Fold this sequence. Notes:
Layout: H1 3-31, H2 35-38, H3 41-67, H4 75-104, H5 117-138
Amino acid sequence: MNDELRRCWRFGWTSLAAWALFGLALEAAHGFKLAAYLDDNLRHTILRLAHAHGVILALVVLAVAKASPLSESDAAGARAARRTAGLVRAGALLVPVGFALGGIAPHEGDPGWPVVLVPVGGLLLVAGLIRLAWQSWRYR
């Protein structure tokens, strides 16, 4: 297993564990009827979005590690694989973190300013996925 695949595996499994734990904390907040969580509908929604995106994007990173053409042997292919996997991992980090940080202190019906990380992460993720699609057509 090359270094890039190992990074994807580590990021994917660590992220999956962290966002699953985050979801468990949200369930506990719901179960214990914490007013700070339940009384603010925007916070409730944004934090649920953080959990859902975090888990799903962790699975995407694991899929990239399992089924992508990241194990290129030539130097140019290895550099392209590093850039591609880096884009996917950055997107998989920024999207849920942007939601989570934006949901911590929403004000006047709007999420906090860190929610700006969500579209940035989304663009990075889409760029990485387009590169993966291109590489899957280009390499055998």
